[in-house]
Design a protein that fits this description.
Blueprint: H1 23-44, H2 53-76, H3 91-94, H4 98-116, H5 119-127, H6 136-155, H7 159-182, H8 188-216, H9 227-248, H10 253-303
């Protein structure tokens, strides 16, 4: 069996959107590249940056909701994080029911579109003239993930492939939650200090997924040999993310960490004081209400 043969593609999903040929996903990816590197910058050349605060917040909420939905469906299929560390054969080797195989493929197919919707994030950067954020790492990450998910779905769609998507989806919930909070100016002094942590979580995720790919390629595992492609891709992403982390965070990470602890102490001390004041006020109001109620009751009894 060759690594990829068009005639050997997954029979379950052949009639689904974007699965009849590779041209649709390639076309969308090329249009994305054209917009972010050529059409978008030319369009914004003589224009002021757009204020997309509301749009980005809604986008972040959409991504969080989409990832949470995907995670819930995966757990309904019996997924557990323990599967990251072991070989789970393809459905044809285990004898899953047709309905289970259909759901297994459907949610992976659905997740491809969720990841492709992340193209909007880069387009928002262009419209806000945040061209420094349209990096090779950012664009390659957004292009490679949905394309490899598509290849996996076309030729396997097994449970080990689903593990990759689920683990990635959980990290995206954290990541887009951070982006959502960062859109509020009052919180940025705290969220800015979390940037190194968010990047570190992404790097840790890549290492774990790389190990998962290695497990899939072990001689006794019947998972798709396409995990070779994902392992190469993850190795490249690990290198790019580590380079980004060392260049941007490592030199100031200790200072940032202690500053973060100091700011957190001040914030929570103030928060605790306000909570205590509110508690005292609430107790006084309840006490006053109870006393007035008792007085009213005694007054009514004396009249009778």
């Amino acid at each position: 069996m060759s690594l990829i043969s068009w005639d050997e593609r997954n029979s379950i999903i052949r009639s689904w959107a974007f699965t009849s040929s590779p041209y649709p996903i390639i076309s969308v990816s090329l249009i994305y590249l054209w917009i972010v590197f050529r059409a978008g910058p030319n369009f914004m050349k003589n224009r002021r940056p757009f204020d997309l605060t509301l749009a980005t917040r809604l986008y972040n909420i959409f991504q969080i909701a989409g990832c949470l939905f995907f995670n819930v469906q995966a757990f309904k299929l019996g997924f557990s994080f323990y599967e990251i560390w072991k070989c789970t054969d393809e459905p044809k080797y285990i004898g899953y029911s047709d309905e289970f195989e259909m759901k297994l493929n459907y949610y992976q197919w659905w997740y491809i579109f969720l990841r492709m919707s992340e193209f909007l994030e880069t387009i928002f950067f262009v419209l806000r003239k945040k061209f420094n954020q349209v990096s090779i790492l950012h664009v390659y990450h957004h292009i490679s993930i949905p394309f490899l998910l598509w290849i996996f779905l076309m030729y396997s769609g097994g449970r080990m492939e689903l593990c990759l998507a689920i683990f990635n989806s959980h990290v995206h919930v954290i990541m887009y939650g951070y982006y959502f909070l960062s859109s509020f100016h009052k919180l940025q002094k705290y969220t800015n200090l979390l940037k190194p942590l968010i990047t570190a979580i992404q790097i840790l995720q890549l290492f774990i997924l790389f190990i998962h790919c290695v497990i899939a390629l072990l001689p006794g595992c019947h998972a798709s040999r396409l995990f070779v492609l994902q392992a190469i891709n993850l190795g490249l992403l690990i290198f790019m993310f580590l380079k980004f982390y060392f260049e941007n965070y490592l030199s100031n990470s200790a200072d940032a960490f202690f500053k973060f602890l100091h700011n957190e102490y001040i914030f929570f001390s103030f928060y605790a004081q306000q909570c205590l004041k509110f508690y005292v006020y609430l107790v006084k109001r309840i006490k006053s209400f109870v006393i007035n109620s008792l007085r009213t009751a005694n007054l009514l009894e004396s009249k009778d």
